[in-house]
Amino acid sequence: VRCLKLSNSSEIALSLIESQPLWGTDQEKDDLCNLCNNNPLKVKQMIVSIIHLYNGDIGKFLKRNTS
After folding, report:
1. Which of 4, 7, 28, 54 could crosslink 58 through cysteines, CB 3.0-4.6 Å?
2. Residue 3 Ramachandran class (φ > 0 left, ψ -120 to 50 alpha, else beta)
């Protein structure tokens, strides 16, 4: 069994966000990456929630989940 450790990279996290039907300001995208500690798995999980619960609006998600 081999494992590949993914480091928490802001570039990877941001590219995951930008590859999905999400919208938000650059700051909101950065805030989402930071909320997930730039962890790709956490970012993917958040993306699914944002798409289904907030119609892809990162700003609405952040307002609801960081206040």
Report:
1. 28
2. beta
